[in-house]
Design a protein that fits this description.
Layout: E1 2-4, H1 23-30, H2 36-39, E2 41-42, E3 48-51, H3 62-75, H4 78-82, E4 89-91, H5 102-105, E5 111-116, H6 120-137, E6 143-150, H7 157-168, E7 172-176, H8 180-187, H9 192-195, H10 201-221
Parallel strand pairs: 1-3, 1-4, 5-6, 6-7
Antiparallel strand pairs: 2-3
Length: about 220
């Protein structure tokens, strides 16, 4: 799992609630002496965790930071060395510059899944992302696999998101109900799979994983 947000908190729940050193921070500290072991941490379930990081707030371009991180991962042959079965890029939802689209434009990501609530601004961002993906798709970069509703329990949320999906031209592939168990697991420094064996959310996330795998495999075959 590669976190592409300057906040560098994508993998925190996989690493005991602790933030791992980011690619950009390690680059600044070690330069050409940087090794994969400096930026790749093994988290819960054997998941390999990487955080691209970002510049000092108010200084530099966060998108450029992501590009620098990807260039270093490519230079160190990260995928060749670890040979992961699946790579997940957790990208900031606001497509504000080309740097945030690096996983798509660089040919790394094949399928894109948008996570959104039914709030207006989230759906506005979802529409912008879908539009960007359509533009990339014309060049053979990536495909929009669907939208995941991360519920905020607003009124008629599922209907609102379903209508938005129709307008965007995609499907809602999973409903993620709002659950206090997620925050409970986070307070323990992990995920529901690690800390809450009886949580109903485990089945929800497992179903989502199966759906994503199926969509991805069908796209590869097609």
């Amino acid at each position: 799992q590669i976190g592409c947000d300057p906040k560098a908190d994508s993998t925190k729940n996989l690493t005991g609630g602790k933030r791992i050193p980011t690619v950009l921070d390690q680059l600044k500290e070690k330069g050409e002496a940087l090794q994969l072991t400096d930026i790749v941490a093994e988290g819960f379930g054997g998941v390999l965790c990487i955080e691209s990081g970002g510049p000092t707030p108010g200084i530099g371009c966060a998108g450029r930071g992501i590009i620098s991180a990807f260039e270093k991962l490519q230079e160190l042959d990260a995928f060749g060395v670890y040979q992961p079965d699946i790579v997940i890029y957790d990208v900031l939802g606001d497509v504000v510059c080309g740097g945030f689209a690096m996983p798509i434009r660089g040919g790394y990501a094949k399928e894109v899944f948008i996570v959104s609530s039914g709030e207006m601004m989230s759906l506005y961002a979802a529409n912008n992302i879908a539009q960007a993906i359509r533009n990339f798709g014309k060049r053979g970069y990536a495909h929009l696999g669907g939208l995941i509703l991360n519920a905020k329990n607003i009124e008629n949320e599922q209907q609102i998101v379903q209508q938005a999906c129709t307008e965007i031209g995609t499907e809602m592939i999973q409903y993620i109900p709002r659950s206090a168990e997620i925050q409970l697991a986070e307070s323990k420094g992990g995920t529901v799979f690690e800390h809450l064996p009886d949580s109903a959310m485990r089945q929800v996330y497992s179903q989502l994983a199966d759906t994503i795998l199926q969509i991805t495999q069908e796209a590869l075959v097609g």
